[in-house]
Amino acid sequence: MAVEDYLGRGGRLVGGPAAELVSAGYAAEIAAGPRLARALSRADLAHAVTLIEGGAIAEAEARSLLDGLLQLDAIDPDEFPWNAELGDAFNSREHELQRRVGAAAGGWLSAGRPRREAFRVALRLVARDGARALHDAVTDLAVALADQADRHASDLAADYTYLQPAQPTTLGHLLLAYAYPALRDAERLRDAVEWLDLSVAGSGGSAGSRWPLDRERLADLLGGSGVMRHAKDAVWQADGYVELVLG
Questions:
Q1: What distance in Å separates the CA atoms of residue 233 and residue 245, rounded to the nearest whole number?
Q2: Among 70, 58, 73, 40, which Cα is nearest to 105's?
Q3: pLDDT band at 8 (very low <50, low <70, confident <90, very high)
Q4: Which residue, 108, 121, 135, 115, is CA-closest to 212?
């Protein structure tokens, strides 16, 4: 890649990243690009729409920006030109956007929003969709177990402790021993989805943004139920992810 294509060049940087930096850091980050691509598109489009509705962008540049973002969204995530030499996935998207619509329109993608906010929003969207899908699968499992338990409510079976037959019971009773934990898992997943459903968009670096960004509108565009009220907390919180992983 030519040095002049590196997004960081022109300020304090005079060249692109060293090969060691690309292989040690950027390559690992860019690997998440395909998984986050659709959610990054949703985050970028919501941000652009809110800026436009707030009157921050002139009509001609607004049209060009939205057209470019829709072009990016139409690219298959596995076919997108991800380039670890540019940095993370957002940098690749920004580079491709500016290549298509120019810097004047494409540059608005970062107006009032740090680069990492796009990732924070996208990660929540991907995690929320995954938690919902897992919740539905776990619930289906519990229903299937309950149906089978009802069908075999009177079928005798042996219960075991330490691999030894212990007490007589029924097959239905044994099956329900797995249905109840599944229901508890589903309850924990509902709590996780409720947390993930709160939008962190529009939080800025840590104390909000001076740009005309309506956080409630952003949440609505992203399909959220509301916003994380404290901007700094929204930027840095990780406890919900920890609970989701450990739960």
A1: 20
A2: 58
A3: low
A4: 108
Amino acid letter for position 111: A
Average pLDDT (25-46) is 94
* 180, β-bridge pairs: none
DSSP codes of every residue in 226-247: EE-SSHHHHHH--HHHHHHHH-
Range 18-55 burial, b when 16+ CB lie within 10 A, else e = eeeebeeebeebbebbeebbebbbbbbbbbbbbbbeee
Phi first, then psi: what are they for 199, rounded to 5°? -80, 140
Q: To which H or E segment does residue 60 belong?
A: helix 59-74
Side chain identity at residue 200, one-letter code: V
Give the span between the Cα atoms of 78 and 169, in whole angstroms.
Answer: 52
What domains appear along the chain, each with residue ranges and CATH number? Answer: 3-111 (1.10.275.10), 117-246 (1.20.200.10)
Answer whether residue 210 shows pLDDT above 50: yes
Residue with tokens 């619509």: 101
Number of Cα atoms under 13 Å in the Cβ half of residue 198: 15
What pLDDT shows up at residue 10?
59
Burial of 203 (0-12, 13-18, 19+ CB in 10 A): buried
Distance CA 127, CA 131 (A): 6
pLDDT greater than 60 at residue 89: yes
Under the banding of pLDDT at 50, 70 and 90, the label for residue 54 is very high
The separation between CA 201 and the C-alpha centre of its own chain, rounded to angstroms, equals: 12
Compare 85 and 247 and report the one with higher pLDDT: 85
| pLDDT attached to residue 1 | 44
